[in-house]
Structures are given as structure tokens and as C-alpha cells.
């Protein structure tokens, strides 16, 4: 078997580094780990793999000067705008003066508090069920007594949200978090979110920018409502006075590392304070929040819901505008 074929069969990401610490002949495992093509990686410098960090370059310099193997543990590499992986790095001198770079991806380690958090969530889910039942019953009683259509609509909204929260509590208690999918019109989800926002004491100005020709998509209406509502609530907490809910079809959409023929695109755009620069790269990580009193779970849950549906969620921010985009593939079932 040819050397190049063996090189590309290695499960460890590897490449040669020339005297300028530029990547040469990155193998298939390294390209997959970093989410880039061989052509794109070829010629990039070691510093490009960890912008703003110096330990990789310093380790390579030591390895070349001292002619010995240098290893680094738990290095964080940015492999996309919203994804960071932890890796072990090994740098070894080669006879021709180049260096061998080897990168071993580490399995994601949950925070030490994950188990305690899980138990706390289950405990919270158990305790919240009785108040929810009381809230629902009071709303039903109120609905029977009121006459005005607007009051009846508000009572119906309370009942529907109590049912949604009760379903979420049951999922936490039973450990059945999978989405319950069926054909749905995404605009029903967006209108439900709009109604909830309009019922707020200080509602934002809502702009609906819908494509009415969009076909139904396979999804869980409660989970997708939770996703979009979380984004909108975050916007309001960031001082947004205007929120746009937009729906479109996107042809040839890229979802993570795959290309899909047709996807549903939902944009949530607001004019709030935006994403703090210091958390932009870890925005969707659990326990990361831009607010001192935030749990850091909202966006992590949103991305989890998107992935349950085979989709992707990304966000970006610039002066005066924060923009989250949800992509859901048509014609695919996941999970």
C-alpha cells in the first residue's frame, strides 16, 4: 500500500510542519477534525490553528531547537465560528528538519456540576408540576367566567403554556427528551411565540416577515416554540425594542458539515445590546451567559433542539443588530 494511502488511513490527525511552521500534507483525519479541506489547510501556519494563543508555536520552536518530542495536553482549538474542541498535541522532529504534528481529539468532558445539575432539574420538574396544575385550573375557571374574546384568548394562552411546561417537566422526570415530531406549519409556531411576546407587560415591536408558500416541515411544535421563544426572550432581556421573525426556504443549505438540497430557514433578528465579545466564541456552551444572573443554559438548549431536528442554529452580532438563524432540513427524519 502506498505511503500516502497509509497516511490518510491514520485515525490520528497529522501533518508535517516546515521551517516556517506551515502545514504540509495534512491527512484525512486532521481535515475531518478541523472541518476544513486539505487544500484549505495546506500552507496554513500553526498559529492559525489557535488564533491569539502562543503555546503551540512555542512548543514547536522548542521541539525544533532541542530536537525532542514536545507534548501539550488539553489544548482548545477553534474549529468553526461556534465550535471548540479539546485536543492533545504532539510535536516530533523529523530527520529532514521538518516537524511531525499529531493531534488527538479528546472526548468532551461534562462539567463537574453536570450530575448535580441534572438532579436539580429533575427536582425542579417534580416541584413545578403541582403549581402548573393549579395555574391551568385557574385559567380554565377564568375562561368560563370572562366574556371578552381577548380575555378568553389570554386564558387559552395560559392553558397552552401550562400544558407545554408540564410536558417539559414530564420529559425531565422520565428522561425522554426526544422531540415528538409530526408535520407542522412553522408559521403556527412563530405566531404562538408572537402571541406570548405580545402578552408581556412591555412587549417589543414585532415584525413578521413570512414566506406563506413554505411547505410543512417535520418537527415538534413545543420544542420549536421553546427554541424561538428563548431567542426572543434573550433579545428582550438585552433591551431589544424590535424583533423580526422571518421565514424562508434555502436551497443548497449547509448544515454543519453536510449540504442539504432544501432547508427551512427561520431568522430571529433584534436591535438589542448584542452578544458580548468575550463570549462570542462560546455562545452555545452550557454555563456561558452574558448576564450576571443568567444560567447559561438557554442557548445550549436551543442548539440541542435544532440538532434534535437534524438542523443547526448559529448567531452573530454587530452594532444595533443580533441575528440568529435556524436551519431545518426538509425531507429528513432524525433520532
TrEMBL record:
Residues 123-332 form the Histidine kinase domain. Its EC number is 2.7.13.3. It catalyses: ATP + protein L-histidine = ADP + protein N-phospho-L-histidine. It holds the Pfam family HisKA. It comes from Tahibacter amnicola. GO terms for molecular function: ATP binding. Keywords: ATP-binding, Kinase, Nucleotide-binding, Phosphoprotein, Transferase, Two-component regulatory system. SMART domains: HATPase_c, HisKA. It is an enzyme of class 2 (transferase). This is histidine kinase.
